[in-house]
Amino acid sequence: MSNPEIRELEAFLALADELHFGRAGERLYLSQSRISQLLRALESRIGGRLVDRTSRRVRLTPLGERLHAGLRPAFDAIVETIDEVREAARGVGGVFRVGFQGTANDPFMRAVTAFRDGHPHCAAEIVEIPLSDPFGAVHRGEVDAAVVLMPVRDDALVLGAVFSARPLTLAVSDRHPYARRPGVDAEDLAGCPLIGVSGAAPEYWRLAQAPVVTPGGRAIPAGPAVGSLQEGLALVRAGRGGMLLCDPTADYYGSHAVTFVPVAGLPESSLALVWHRNLETARTRGFARALADVTEATG
């Protein structure tokens, strides 16, 4: 029996990712019926059903799961190799736009420098990502990748290096009672309204930046919601609430009217590189490697 054709494998992998014939077709610019034809052809070559489908859902059979587990990394490696060889033949050029949320820190800037040194024909541009919409620019293709605050729970995004884990501080007005303490416990947040994030940021991400309960289950009062860090700090100075920030951000935005109090009992804040899995390029992988090398070298 002849070996599968590349289009059959692409259709199967798209269907395994989407579990929906229509969306799989959209990814490959094919009709739903064409995806069905390609799947049937692949199943015929293999001699078994790869997908179970009902009126309500699509799922892989055990045989399909086994094929997907072995095929996906091999197929991705082939695509990546071809892409990298193609880019090497013409040189990695063009413009690589990388977003950053907040203030570009030292590991990030060293990665930008390393990327520029390794890809002299590619211009690297840094774009500010708004606090209120950490993932939007990546989804819209406005940037090739972005460094954002964790957590990231988006199946459409690839999670690259996670780095710069730092303790959290509570930014409060210097008139706030907590400003006179050397530190506070996470349970003390029940006594301070937290300024949250408005806009397009997903709810899980907004709750991570401004939780509504303490680890012990006590309710934390909700303060105003803002679209930028500068707005939040202005409200802090006005005594409208506190804001959870990592200590490097506290150092950078230190103000005579704001006190940054260390908080014990909360997970550290971390940054992560993300990019859209359907828009990945050799430039994206090159920058991801540069950032991974920098963060590994610094621990």
UniProtKB/TrEMBL annotation:
Question: InterPro entries of this UniProt entry?
Answer: LysR_HTH_N, LysR_subst-bd, WH-like_DNA-bd_sf, WH_DNA-bd_sf
Keyword vocabulary terms for this entry: DNA-binding, Transcription, Transcription regulation
SUPFAM superfamilies this protein is in? Periplasmic binding protein-like II, Winged helix' DNA-binding domain
Domain HTH lysR-type residue range list: 4-61
Tell me the protein family, please: Belongs to the LysR transcriptional regulatory family.
Task: Quote the protein name from its UniProt record.
Answer: Transcriptional regulator, LysR family
